[in-house]
Design a protein that fits this description.
12 strands, four-stranded antiparallel beta sheet, alpha/beta, 34% helix, Rossmann fold, five-stranded parallel beta sheet, 222 residues
Length: 222
């Protein structure tokens, strides 16, 4: 089983003269949403909850402190890594967890990211290319990064806890809705449909969440 990787919000403006990290982090296996300004990143937070925020302030030609304060106010518990130019003086960086001065290798950045792994791993369920962060309700599946509702996240959690096993409709309903009443599981069918629309390439021909006739549904990650 592949190790779960953190989802990163990378605020970085590609410039020929500056060191950029987007491609290198993707090559290291991270799920990266790259935006070219702090404002763009704030807009994307409506549908994306990162595990770590990385701000390459050097590429933005700023010290990044104002941008960091925006994200700290918006997501106070998400770790913040700030990358600044070699000669940038950082006397006031209380809103930042880690400050890195250029130049440095991508491995140094990866090492800092790994420092946040312990808490991250406890919150993540993963099987193959599919991973769900139980804390943020962010699901990653290949190139998709989707923020799920609490109910859909719980539904996916039930499947991830029993991958490849057919689960009965009543069993799923009881685990997700926490009720012994299973006389009408049509609500389950509707939520399965919604989850497929979020994750499947073609929700009308599901390959990930399959219907098992006479039983219920199954998470298939073959």
């Amino acid at each position: 089983m592949a190790e779960p990787q953190q989802s990163l919000l990378l605020v970085e403006k590609p410039r020929k003269q500056e060191i950029c990290f987007n491609d290198a982090l993707i090559n290291k296996g991270y799920s990266v949403l790259q935006v070219s300004s702090g404002g763009d990143g704030l807009v994307r937070l409506s549908s994306f909850r990162p595990d770590v925020i990385v701000i390459n302030a050097a590429s933005l030609r700023t010290n990044g402190l104002r941008i960091c304060s925006w994200y700290r106010n918006r997501l106070p518990l998400v770790p913040l890594i700030l990358i600044v130019a070699e000669d940038e003086l950082m006397a006031e960086a209380e809103t930042v967890d880690v400050v890195l001065h250029l130049p440095f290798t991508v491995q140094k950045l990866v090492n800092r990211l790994k420092a946040f792994d312990d808490g991250f791993a406890q919150d993540v369920l993963a099987h193959g290319p599919l991973q769900l962060n139980l804390k943020t309700r962010m699901v990653s599946y290949y190139k998709k990064n989707v923020y799920l509702t609490p109910r859909l996240a719980k539904l996916l959690q039930v499947f991830l806890e029993s991958p490849g096993q057919p689960l009965g409709r009543e069993e799923i309903f009881m685990n997700v809705w926490d009720t012994t009443y299973t006389g009408d599981t049509r609500t389950l069918d509707v939520h399965i449909s919604w989850l497929r629309k979020e994750l499947e390439e073609d929700s009308t021909r599901p390959k990930l969440i399959k219907t098992v006739r006479g039983v219920g549904y199954m998470l298939d990650l073959k």
